[in-house]
Structure formats: C-alpha cells, structure tokens
Design goal:
- The chain contains 5 helices and 8 strands; from the N terminus they run H-H-E-E-E-H-E-H-E-E-E-E-H.
- The chain is of the alpha/beta class and 212 residues long.
- Strand 7 and strand 8 form a beta hairpin.
- The termini are far apart.
C-alpha cells in the first residue's frame, strides 16, 4: 500500500508551490547572470550614476539591432546568433569589422580592434573579435595568420546577404560593430574614431556590467 502511494506521488508531478519556487529561482539566476549587463546598457545609454556625464564615443544604434538580422555564420556553418542570449554561459562582447574590399581603411580598423582588445588587459578575454570582409588583398591574406589569428572570419549564410543596420554601408565605408552579450548591435565606429575612443567606451561598459 505504501509503495502504491509513493508511486502515485511521483506521478503527480510538482505541486503549484514547487512550480512557483522553480520560477522564482530561474528569474533570480537570470538576474544574477544578466542583471549587471542590463544595468550596464541602461546606464551607458542614459549616463545614469555617471558623474562625468559620459555616455559614449561611438555611434549608438537606437534602437539596437539583433545580430541575427545580419545572417552571418562561422566557417563551420554555426549561426553567429547562437552565441548570445540568456541561456549562454558568460557570452562575450564582440567587435565585428565589416568591409567590402579590405583596403587601407579596412586594415586600419582591423588593427584598431586588435590593439583595443589587447589594451583591455585582464578584461581582454571578455571581448571577442571577428571580421566580415568581401575581399582581402593577397598581401593581407598572407599576413592574416600571424597578425590577426585571433580574429574570426564570418560569412553570410548561403543564399543570403547581410541586412546591415541603418547607416552601415560596408561596401563604401568599413566600420566596427559592437555587439553586446545579448546579441544586440548597439554601437559602431569608423575612421573618425581613435583607439582611445573605443577603449574608453569598452572599459566603461565592462566596468558597469560587473555591478553586483
């Protein structure tokens, strides 16, 4: 008799109270993991609690644009968008250099992204780098493995073309796109920006996202 009661209890599933407790735990875990990033984004856009009144040096995208709209994937065929989201463990920020033909201006941005990443020091591993390039000169291609080995090459999904955010025209003007850990393109940079501009923004964001 006791065994039958035990079996019935196991088959009944969680009680309403257990379900509510599970939901509260899930929300708490989400806030612990991504609350600081949400706070960082809000504070960066608004300058809230920022005594210097600084918001950004790069060009903000308002509203932000999901990286999924770019229709990009890795060389192995994995969609870029799968790297981001609340279900991922410690997703990185991402700098993406985008250009049509990678000439001198494009390579300047490749170099800028690399140097800024290095300059982040202990936080360098929190930011990844990638590039979407229409064509690469043979001399740069020959130097790629030695100078940009940590910069991943992304390509459009077969049969598609990237849907770039408003104001982004890689064929005529190379840019660096900044993607947050949620997979949102939030800001971009070009030849009008210095390494100091970008480094200042990233340090500010990374510092804010460690709140709590």
């Amino acid at each position: 008799m006791a065994n039958r009661i035990s079996d019935q209890a196991q088959n009944e599933g969680p009680t309403p109270e257990q379900t509510r407790r599970g939901r509260r735990t899930a929300v708490l875990l989400f806030l612990l993991g991504f609350g600081p990033i949400i706070a960082a984004t809000i504070m960066f856009y608004t300058g809230w609690l920022n005594p210097a009144g600084h918001t950004n040096n790069g060009v903000l995208l308002q509203p932000v644009v999901p990286v999924s709209t770019l229709n990009l994937e890795t060389s192995s065929g994995t969609p870029l968008a799968e790297r981001f989201g609340p279900d991922k463990t410690d997703p990185d920020w991402l700098m993406i250099v985008v250009a049509g033909q990678c000439g001198s201006q494009c390579e300047e941005l490749l170099y800028l992204a690399r140097q800024v990443n290095i300059a982040l020091g202990k936080n360098a591993n929190r930011v990844s780098r990638a590039a979407v390039l229409g064509s690469v000169p043979s001399d740069l291609q020959a130097r790629w493995s030695s100078e940009y080995s940590s910069m991943e090459r992304l390509v459009p999904v077969a049969g598609t073309h990237p849907s770039w955010p408003s104001g982004i025209r890689p064929e005529s003007e190379p840019r660096i796109l900044l993607v947050d850990p949620f997979g949102n393109i939030m800001m971009h940079y070009g030849s009008e920006h210095t390494g100091k501009d970008m480094l200042e923004d990233l340090k500010h964001l990374l510092k804010l996202s460690q709140i709590g």
